[in-house]
Amino acid sequence: MEKAQAISDLEFIRKTMRASTRYTNIPPLGYLLSGLFGLAGPVYSWLYLGAEKVADPARIEFYDVFTLGVAWLTILLAAAFASAVFSVLRAKGLGKSAWNSLVARMLGSQTPQLFAAGILTIGMVAHKQYSLIPGVWLISYGLVLFSLYFFTGKDHLIQSAVFLALGAASLFSQAGVSLILLAAGFGATNLFFGVRGLLKEKEVYETGPAQ
Amino acid sequence: MKPDRLSNIIHERVRLAVMSALAARGKITFCELKDILEVTDGNLSVHATVLEQNGLIKIKKDFLAKSPRTTFSITDKGRREFKKYIEELGTILHDRP
Over A41-105, what HEC string results? Predict the structure, then answer.
């Protein structure tokens, strides 16, 4: 066996192993729960603020910001927790550890985007630019998904494009429309991919031909 | 370096892919593996049978929700031989100019 062949074989093995673990990403149920949380956030914000404050964010008071901040932080943590729990359960089901160097690299790659989103949010709140928050969140999450794409597969690339497009649209929309776009991103998009994932798993695990 | 008989068994492209996927995942269904490797049913079946006959993998057939399901899993011997194969490749990389 030549050296070039050995290099080619090792590269082939690496690619195959990476391809085989792309299915160990956030499972469909994690997406579904995240989608429900993602819908709950904008709906709660709308109901809490009321139509007048949604239409005119300048009327939003500090205590509104505090209440919504707590609510959104709870939603973020709940969604992250749900995704983590389902990922761990899936990994256990596969007899694999949920934590490995790939997961560490994936999480590490998201840190700058999440940090930027946090700082930008604080800045926008400080300057009372509330209507821009949904757009910044959507774009930041789109960037998170884009970074995940390099570790996973094209699903994250598609999701990233959806979030970036919704975020861009949100930045140039009225506040009420921005909340709807936020729901479309964190709610509907996650729900869609959750359902799609469930159908794919069903196809993979239940209707496979006997060989 | 001339690969030994087991290395020759693993060395074939589809079989190497099957072993790589199973080394990463431990257990995997026929459909999922076919999807990952992008091979035909027949091709995958033939090569999986060769691996099973040499004790490198196990093939389990059962039913899930009335649908037949085939699951591949790597054996201890399979893990050892796959590791040995990787080590052989590493040796070639380091020994050859």
Answer: HHHHHHHHHHHHHHHCHHHCCHHHHHHHHHHHHHHHHHHHHHHHHHHHHHHHHCCCCCCCHHHHH
CA geometry: angle A130, A147, A22, nearest 5 deg: 130
The one-letter amino acid code at B77 reads: K
Looking at the partner chain, which of A12, A17, A211 has a beta carbon nearest the beta carbon of B30?
A211
Chain A 79-118, CB below 8 Å of chain B: which residues? 94-96
Is the model's pLDDT at A96 over the cut of 60?
no
pTM of structure: 0.61
- Is there a contact between B26 and A7 if contact means CB atoms under 8 Å apart? no
Q: What is the CB-side half-sphere exposure of residue A23 using CA atoms within 13 A? A: 25
pLDDT computed for residue A21 by the predictor: 60
Domains and CATH numbers, chain B: 5-95 (1.10.10.10)
Taking only the tens place, the pLDDT of each residue in A15-66 is: 777 666 655 556 778 889 989 999 999 999 999 999 999 988 889 998 999 9
The ipTM assigned to this model is 0.88
Residue A17 near chain B (CB below 8 Å)? yes
- 3-class SS at A172? coil
* Closest residue in B to A17 (Cα–Cα): B21
